[in-house]
Amino acid sequence: MRPSKREADEMRAVSFERGVSKHAEGSCLVRFGDTHVLCTASLEERVPGWLRNSGQGWVTAEYGMLPRSTGDRMRREASSGKQGGRTLEIQRLIGRSLRSVVDLQALGEKQVTVDCDVLQADGGTRTAAITGGFIALSDCLSWMEARQMIVRDKVLKDHVAAISCGIYNGNPVLDLDYAEDSTAQTDANFVMTGKGGIVEIQGTAEGEPFSEGEFASLMGLARKGISRLVELQKLAIS
């Protein structure tokens, strides 16, 4: 039995609240159960120096956790003068995931930065950030299309979403919360497109190595979960 009493293939309640920031070109408050992440997409009429005069745009991301997003207060990374390794790894993952479904040439020489701020953490913050970040990015591109800056459907090639899976008490389960994530024998994150393409898989055995059969079970759960997330994304932005 899972701590949350969910079935092995049952996700937490997922919701997307769009337009939560009056200033950002696109924004979404995404909730995966008790994990809440605010995603904002900001447009800039510039690109990194190495892309200047290339005709190509860029999509990037930043990620952070608020001090009381966890049980004990976390020190702000700004107070230490640098970002931690975990933060850098996650925001690079978010950026790669979002770029996988964007035609950067069709975007033109513009940059969209998706900021993902964790308001409350209960496992799966990076997967929630990717899934909600897509909504914020989509709304930013719609904002641009309304001003005749781009043709949205030429820029956005597909949906992208992410979900965690793991081996908990010897059983493959979908969408780990913190109680499961902190004690799981195997923890994995899957990023996939709406068409089923694999963007990235991160999998780690915390104790005993996991088998190819167990990995196949996790992959099956991930495909089911991401298919559901993409359905919810489509309902949110329709």
Please provide a brief summary of the model:
33% of the residues lie in helices and 29% in strands. The protein is α+β, with helices and mostly antiparallel strands.
Which regions contain 5 or more consecutive residues with pLDDT less than 50?
none
Taking the sheet with the most strands, its summary is:
5 strands, mixed
End-to-end C-alpha gap: 37 Å
| CATH C-level category | Alpha Beta
Strand segment count: 9
Q: How many distinct helices?
A: 7
Q: What is the approximate shape?
A: globular
Can you identify the CATH superfamily? Answer: GHMP Kinase, N-terminal domain
The CATH architecture can be given as 2-Layer Sandwich
Enzyme class: transferase
GO molecular function: 3'-5'-RNA exonuclease activity; tRNA binding; tRNA nucleotidyltransferase activity
Organism: Nitratireductor indicus C115
Subunit structure: Homohexameric ring arranged as a trimer of dimers.
How would you characterize this protein structure?
This protein has 238 residues and is an alpha+beta fold. The protein has a single domain, classed as GHMP Kinase, N-terminal domain (Ribosomal Protein S5, domain 2). It contains 7 helices and 9 strands. The strands form 2 sheets. Strands 1-2-3-5-4 form a 5-stranded mixed beta sheet. A 4-stranded antiparallel beta sheet has the order 7-6-8-9, with helices on both faces. Strand 8 (186-193) and strand 9 (198-205) form a beta hairpin. It is globular and about 55 Å long.
